[in-house]
Amino acid sequence: MSAKYNEIGINYNQTRKADPYxxxxxxxxxxxxxxxxxxxxxCGTGNYTSELQKKGFQFIGIDPSIEMLKKAQSQNTAxxxxxxxxxxxxxxxxxxxxxxxxxxxxxxxxxARAFSELNYILKPNGKIVIFTSTxxxxxxxxxxxxxxxxxxxxxLQMPTLEAVKEAMNHSEIQITSTETxxxxxxxxxxxxxxxxxxxxxxxxxxxxxxxxxxxxLANRDEIESGxxxxxxxxxxxxxxxxxxxYQNDLGDYLYIIGEKTEV
Length: 263
Known about the structure:
Blueprint: H1 2-8, H2 12-15, H3 20-30, E1 37-41, H4 47-54, E2 58-63, H5 66-75, E3 80-83, E4 96-102, H6 111-121, E5 122-132, H7 135-138, H8 148-157, H9 161-170, E6 173-181, H10 205-209, H11 212-217, H12 220-236, H13 238-245, E7 253-260
Parallel strand pairs: 1-2, 1-4, 2-3, 4-5
Antiparallel strand pairs: 5-7, 6-7
């Protein structure tokens, strides 16, 4: 997947900008202090890392993709960018006050090992904030109607909340709360369900290129046929009926907030 993200990273910043609301939510749940040292794990091109650093907080960005990190370095030289992964950060024990991970957990190869590593580098009472979606939430995306195999494959790589809880508890990181997030109008970060309220976004090839489900998992024929059907349904108004049939109260994405309990 790191090789695929080297390819995605070429134009990633065009469509995957830090969303102001999501940035504020990360701040609220992490509750950092300006004397601390924080980690953005799976930072990509570092858009959220940079936004949080601009607010006066010290961050390190770690990602397995060299192409992503080159982009991150070019936009902000004040941050330490490092090759690594959740399973192997190469950071010292008890060196980090808090961790964020946005839309990255599904790329971790071993949840138990990853959370064990993050626990190792976290200071006692350090916080971790994961922004993700669950397979159950993704079943409620109307994208399933047009790209069923792509969504099925995406759900297969997305860990369940139960699996995340088990891995965190095993690593002595206690989940203190979870908060759902629903797509808001004007979202600046064009991830998978960015077009929930604006289906036209999916006809933009650059937006699809910045979404790993479209660029790494999807079948070209399914994308083409799905876009044709989506275009027809937008033009004839049927899209409203399709979207209504997928309405649910599960939320589109999820914040998982945890705290290291080990003293």
